[in-house]
Design goal:
The protein is mainly beta. It has a domain at about 40-140: Jelly Rolls. It is about 5% helix and about 35% strand. The chain contains 2 helices and 9 strands, in the order H-E-E-E-E-E-E-E-E-E-H. The strands form 3 sheets. A 4-stranded antiparallel sheet has the order 1-8-3-6, with no helix packed on it. Strands 5-4-7 form a 3-stranded antiparallel sheet, with no helix packed on it. The chain has a two-stranded antiparallel ribbon with strand order 2-9. The chain starts with 19 loop residues before the first helix and ends in an 11-residue tail after the last helix.
């Protein structure tokens, strides 16, 4: 939510202070542009990964997805973007559609990770579609360089 989208309240509470509801919300993420498929549905899920869990194999979503890391740290990688770690309190998003989501696993070897994600799903499409090895090979040139260890 950019400043253009922020709610600006008028008036004050007791002793000139702003009413609590006007300061209770904190923007965590602003994503644009987004495309929501016509007739889409939305679902919010909680994902709990055990220590070191690599997460879901490479996949895609039919619509955009917005996530918040509640606990731990998520290793996150989208096609065309470098791998990154999103720690507790951090957010992530993906546009959905044709973009491959390579990683969403637990970046911690010694602690669990929990995140919540809201996804928009196109009608008649699965919430998550795995990407096969053949397609991964065909699109290899679109993946950001891998970190060297």
């Amino acid at each position: 939510m950019s400043e253009n989208h922020a709610v600006h309240a008028h008036g004050t509470g007791e002793q000139g202070e702003a009413p609590g509801w006007t300061t209770a919300a904190k923007m965590l993420q602003d994503a644009s542009p987004i495309t929501v498929p016509e007739g889409a549905s939305a679902m919010t899920i909680q994902v709990d990964w055990e220590p070191g869990d690599p997460g879901t194999p490479p996949h895609r979503h039919s619509g955009p997805a917005f996530g918040y890391v509640v606990e731990g740290a998520v290793r996150f990688e989208l096609e065309g973007e470098s791998e990154r770690v999103v720690e507790a309190g951090g957010t992530f998003w993906e546009p959905g559609g044709d973009v491959i989501h390579y990683q969403d696993g637990n970046a911690l070897a010694d602690a669990p990770t929990r995140f919540v994600v809201t996804m928009m799903c196109a009608p008649g499409k699965p919430m998550l579609e795995l990407v096969d090895e053949e397609e991964l090979a065909q699109r290899k040139h679109l993946r950001a360089p891998r970190p060297t260890t």
